[in-house]
Amino acid sequence: MRALVRKAGTSARAASVGEAVANSDVLLLATPWPATRSAVESAGPLAGKVLIDATNPLLPDFSALEFGNTTSGAEQVASWAKGARVVKAFNSIGFGIMANPKFGDRSASLLYCGDDGEAKKAVHTLAADLGFAPHDAGPLKQARTLEPLALLWISLAMAQGYGPDIAFDLMRR
To answer: Taking burial as the number of CB atoms within 10 A of a residue's CB, which of 56, 101, 120, 159 is the most buried?
Structure first.
């Protein structure tokens, strides 16, 4: 951890999860699905925090989602993170695209959804600052469509052989 902090620069520091939560307004949840509930519940008070949910409720073999049309992983996260302003985002792109979302002169689309307008604005700004083309997909229940989109990305990238350097692009005329 010390080596990682040194590499990150002079303003970086290590903190416990509780310290990080207490000292942050915006948090990113990026855990394997089986560890998600425990991570949320052990994080400490999340009320008022913007919680970006980048998880996907994948089965262990990545073949399907644990939830379908009547709820989503993001809605489960919101029920566990009492008072947090949950926004589903960054769940349907690979880590390489997060590091560089540019494809020539175009940017990978980043779809997000949530019920809190200010929280969604914060996620939109963050995504744009990172180089994505952010698109508001509506209320948090839209995670019921964004999580299957992530499953499609995984299938294309891994099972269909496209590899991890793929992204979706929302285009309009």
So the answer is: 56
